[in-house]
Design goal:
This protein is mainly α. The chain has two domains: about 45 residues, no CATH class; about 140 residues, no CATH class. Helix content is about 60%, strand content about 5%. Strands 1-3-2 form a three-stranded mixed β-sheet, with no helix packed on it.
């Protein structure tokens, strides 16, 4: 029996930390050369990636339709009149179009009107984002990013971080940096004031 192999087995599988050597030596000499440790590391990485994907899919439920063709909205809602109402802006909230005001997942009872903050539209399957909403969302993203540097960390974590992460993910997946910049240049004064009011809690019920 090799004493060197015994030492490696004990250090990698039992202690799982450096004994009489540095962290670098522990990782490069003991861990990376051990088949069991490599297999465990691969499993951990794969599990972490899967968990991250599941989390991303779970937290952003807002439907995104950024094309110019109205048929996309009709296919999405299976209701031509609803699609036309979304395009006209009749269903708009501060952040999206709402297709289920009386079917909110945040209401206390079914059939009650939604009273959740418009920031929660990002997590609502009733919400639909079209290209017309992008200027508001990009401006909101910038405002949240600026807010992060002005409030206490505990306040940010409790009140804002979750919404920022959802919005950041949505914009990163569906738009480019150039598209975001172009959208920001087209935001109207009315939309700017609307988002400012949202950030200052002026729209909370």
């Amino acid at each position: 029996m090799s004493l060197r192999r015994v030492r490696r087995t004990v250090q990698v599988l039992v202690r799982k930390q450096p004994a009489q050597n540095t962290e670098e030596t522990h990782d490069s000499i003991y861990v990376l050369r051990d088949p069991a440790a490599r297999a465990e590391a691969q499993h951990t990485i794969a599990r972490g990636l899967a968990d991250a994907l599941d989390h991303a899919q779970a937290v952003v439920k807002m439907r995104t339709v950024l094309g110019e063709d109205a048929t996309e909205l009709i296919e999405l809602s299976d209701d031509p009149e609803l699609a036309r109402a979304i395009r006209r802006g009749d269903m708009d909230t501060a952040t999206a179009a709402c297709t289920g005001f009386f079917h909110s997942p945040f209401a206390d009872e079914p059939g009650q009107p939604c009273t959740a903050s418009f920031l929660w539209c990002l997590r609502c399957e009733n919400a639909v984002v079209t290209r017309r909403h992008l200027p508001r969302l990009v401006y909101l993203h910038r405002g949240l990013n600026e807010l992060r540097g002005t409030v206490d960390q505990s306040v940010w974590d409790q009140d804002w971080r979750e919404h920022f992460q959802r919005l950041h993910l949505l914009l990163a997946e569906h738009t480019t940096t150039a598209e975001q910049a172009a959208s920001l240049r087209t935001i109207s004064d009315i939309d700017r004031r609307l988002i400012d009011s949202l950030l200052h809690r002026g729209l909370d019920t």
